[in-house]
Structures are given as structure tokens and as C-alpha cells.
Amino acid sequence: xxxxxxxxxxxxxxxxxxxxxxxxxxxxxxxxxxxxxxxxxxxxxxxxxxxxxxxxxxxxxxxxxxxxxxxxxxxxxxxxxxxxxxxxxxxxxxxxxxxxxxxxxxxxxxxx
Amino acid sequence: xxxxxxxxxxxxxxxxxxxxxxxxxxxxxxxxxxxxxxxxxxxxxxxxxxxxxxxxxxxxxxxxxxxxxxxxxxxxxxxxxxxxxxxxxxxxxxxxxxxxxxxxxxxxxxxxxxx
Lengths: 112, 115
Known about the structure:
By secondary structure, chain A is mainly beta. Chain A has strands at about 5, 10-15, 20-25, 30-40, 45-50, 55-60, 60-65, 70-75, 85-95, 100, 105-110.
């Protein structure tokens, strides 16, 4: 079946460093990709999205890169801050199913 | 703009009991989703409504789970009878497709513990 997975369950970075969270997906028909941030006790919060006709999209301190050849997605956070500590999920939307499939999440820990 | 509201926030029940969760989506959002999030995992879609009709309920355990959205606004999710493996956070989300985004807005979730 369709799957979405993250490469590392936990990522620990120093405050001020850049963070990179990676994600792999299996469905080559996926046409939309989205990153969510989930803080403890809260629901997932939208960070940034990208469509399959793009390979890079930038937001405020965040960049998403999409490599459709190897079915890989990454989220880059510049100048990581303590407030960035959370669990990050990537999700893909299959054009044939229309629903979001979430990965298992990477916990980002920011050390002061 | 008010976010997605859910209640209760926490619920503890014994196995074989029943439980119901309520969700009020963002005003004007036609699509409503219920997700189950087991500890340490990503959310898994249980059911998706478009207005008051079901779009996808393929992963809803229909022998014990039911959901409704009678007036196309708020929704309830029920579990009867509950099993230990139903312990999870139940998330409600809503969306209104505009342009190129399919962003879903999530509520805070209901944490269910089945003992």
C-alpha cells in the first residue's frame, strides 16, 4: 500500500543552526505535498506545501525541496529556534485517492 | 477567524463502553475530516465528509465506529464498544479548497484512554 516515511525519528540541533528533515514517499502519482508541525497537546499546524510541478518552495525561514525522481521531500528550517521544537510530519496527497497520507513524524529538539 | 473546536479534550473510559466526540469546523468549510493518531504515529484518516455526505470512510472500523454530519456543519464521532487499541488522539480537521491549496486546519484533538 501507499506509504510515507521519515528518515529519522529524532533530530537534535543547536539553536541557530539549520535543520533538515527528510521524508520519502512511495506513490509516484502524488501531486501535492505538505509539512505540518505538531506541538505537544495540539493538533498539526500547516507549515508549507508544494505541488508536484515544482521542486522548491520557500516560506519564512522554511524551504521545502521535492525530488520526484527519487520520491523524496525535505523541510529545511533556517536559524532554528527553541520554538521550533515539535514533531514534524510530511504528508502526501495521491491524485488518484485525493486524501492525505501522513508519515510517522520526526521530533525536532533544539538545544539552547 | 475561530479555529476548529473539539470536545471533550480528554476522555477516559473502560473497554466495552461507548464514547462520543464532537467537532465544530471553521465556518464555511465544506470538508470535514476525522483522524486517529496513535502515540508516536502520524494521523490516519478515518472519515471525510463533503458537506453532509461521506466522501471516504474506507479506514473507518464500521463495526464499532460511526460518524455523522447531519446539517453539514458540526460532526460527531462515536465508538461503541471501545477496545483498548482505540486509545489515541482523535483529531478533527476542516478545509475549504481555494485555488491551489488543500490545507487542512486541525483542532486540538480529543485524547481517549481506554482501560
